[in-house]
Amino acid sequence: MRPLQVPLVSDVMTQKVFAVGPDTSLETAARLFAQKRVSGAPVVNASGEVVGVVSASDLIDPDRDRGAGVGNAHYYSLENGHALEFGDPTVGRDGTVREVMTPSVLRIGPDQSIVEAGRVMVSKAVHRLLVTDDKHVLVGIVSVMDLVRGFVETEPQ
């Protein structure tokens, strides 16, 4: 029996990450999640710094306070340190991501094992972690499904 090679987070993470801004409308975030088939996204400010995360459950939670803010219709695609902006930031819609996002960010390094990523997810009861380099720059995102795929693909035959 050969030993199991446990992949690193960098082996299974998604490198192309869709993100929203704090002033992105709730409707735009929901549409992004539906179109891209994702259940959450990092929230980044104008300089690309991660300031929080938002999930589909944040968007639909009827008990979340929502202010009277008007959000815009834009989001980002982040890959290899580059950000592309999409949508129209001049189109206003009720509600902003800032009102429902979680401002704390759980991170993991790309050189950590997927076992360690799983431990963090279980202990914090989350479904995804942001992957950042030594300078806390976003390099990817790792989800529960990414971890499952990593374990399944490394299973000895």
Automatic annotation (TrEMBL):
Keyword Repeat belongs to the record: yes
InterPro entries tied to this protein: CBS_dom (IPR000644), CBS_dom_sf (IPR046342), CBS_domain-containing (IPR051462)
Keywords, sorted A to Z: CBS domain, Repeat
Protein name as annotated: Inosine 5'-monophosphate dehydrogenase
Domain CBS: 13-70, 101-157
Coiled-coil segments on the chain, per record: none
Record-linked Pfam families: CBS
Domain of life: Bacteria
Organism annotation: Enhygromyxa salina
CDD domains from the UniProt entry: CBS_pair_BON_assoc
